[in-house]
């Protein structure tokens, strides 16, 4: 068994970004918040697959050559090696759940040359 209170964890960027409630041993689980205009740099994973489920708000997720707009109650699965970039292009904060599996201590590869398509 594993138990954690979200209030005991911090967002990576103070009031936004991922807030990991669990990292390993088999998967990661995070609450993610992006304020209007914030983004997360393009990257991919060699082994881990990533899922996002929107709790509140609207977010644009760019996966390879596609732009997907997600709203409350919507889910996206991103397979290993799919480059993805996340941006809140809207006027309200976004809150979503992120899971990654199988757990790898290091498996985020930056994709600085990625250009999001509209």
Give me some keywords for this one:
Jelly Rolls, 5-stranded antiparallel sheet, mainly beta, 118 residues
Task: Please characterize this protein's 3D structure.
By secondary structure, this protein is an all-beta fold. It has a single domain, classed as Jelly Rolls, CATH 2.60.120.10. It contains no helices and 10 strands. The chain has a 5-stranded antiparallel sheet with strand order 1-2-9-4-7, with no helix packed on it. A 5-stranded antiparallel sheet has the order 6-5-8-3-10, with no helix packed on it. Strand 5 and strand 6 form a beta hairpin. The protein is globular and about 45 Å long. The relative contact order is 0.28. The mean pLDDT is 96.
Short description:
Helix content is 0%, strand content 49%.
Layout: helices, strands, pairs:
Blueprint: E1 17-23, E2 28-34, E3 39-44, E4 49-56, E5 58-63, E6 66-71, E7 75-78, E8 84-87, E9 94-101, E10 109-110
Antiparallel strand pairs: 1-2, 2-9, 3-8, 3-10, 4-7, 4-9, 5-6, 5-8
InterPro entries: Cupin_2, Flavonoid_dioxygenase-like, RmlC-like_jellyroll, RmlC_Cupin_sf
Organism: Vagococcus allomyrinae
Protein name: Cupin domain-containing protein
